[in-house]
Amino acid sequence: MKKNQNGFTLIEVLIAITILSVMMLSFISITDSTFNTADTVTKEDQEILQLETAMSRLEWDISQLYSPLYFSHPMRPDGLAENEGEIYNRLIDSYQRNNRFSLLSYDGIPIPLYKKPEKTTLVFFTSSNRRKMENVNQSRYNWIRYSLEPNDAENEEEKTASSEKTLMLIRQVLNYDIYNPEPIQWEDIKKQVLFRKIISLKIEFWNPETEKWTENIELVKNGVHLIHALRVEIVYLDPDDIEITTVRIFRPLFPEFKPEDMYKFLNAKPTNQKKNNTNNRSRNSGDNTGEESETE
After folding, report:
1. Global pTM?
2. Which of 13, 34, 250, 275 registers the highest number of CB atoms within 10 A of its CB?
């Protein structure tokens, strides 16, 4: 029996090669498109995740705002003796020279100063600090500063045309020597970049008297000591360099209520109580006299 020596013709080979080439080109095109889509989505997700992380960090700090005025009221010289008044005056004088705390509460707790030295800068005192290592000389209280600074892209990927006209959101934390009365040297404190490609940042404070938002913290009653709520408006560029505006509202976890004025109890005169006691005694004595006369 003879073996079949017939193979593929030249035309059949060419057709097979053509079909295989078309299939390979299609496979390469689909793979390349998939990788490009994945890179684009990953880049967009990274920037969105970075923004959400920055907002989450800000929300945590604002929620942990600390001031004794949330549950007490300032110390006043009402009803103090002469020697107590002298001690009070010395305390007030020392806090007038303090750059971080301005007053004492009724319980003797220092009242921190919230500051907005610039339109896009906010400094406040919180209880959001968490020690990373055991036995570190830190407490749960710290000073925090948020600010905008020019974008200093470190690598070539970040150095785009948009990065030259944008700003970056900076967070700084001071968690040691927090009661030092001297001004905080923020230029010496490590900076944490939360988000880049920011066009503008607007910080507003809730004024409960007017029930409106204001950028001037001085217009809010006790605003430098007590923040009721914070409104943040950020305009930034997305990966396609399109301006996006996001607005967030944050508030501290302390409940909103008016602390009881303890001085009204200290200065209250027990006149009514004395009168009632005197009347009761006179009535009792009258009853006793009547009983004695009946007995006689």
Report:
1. 0.72
2. 250
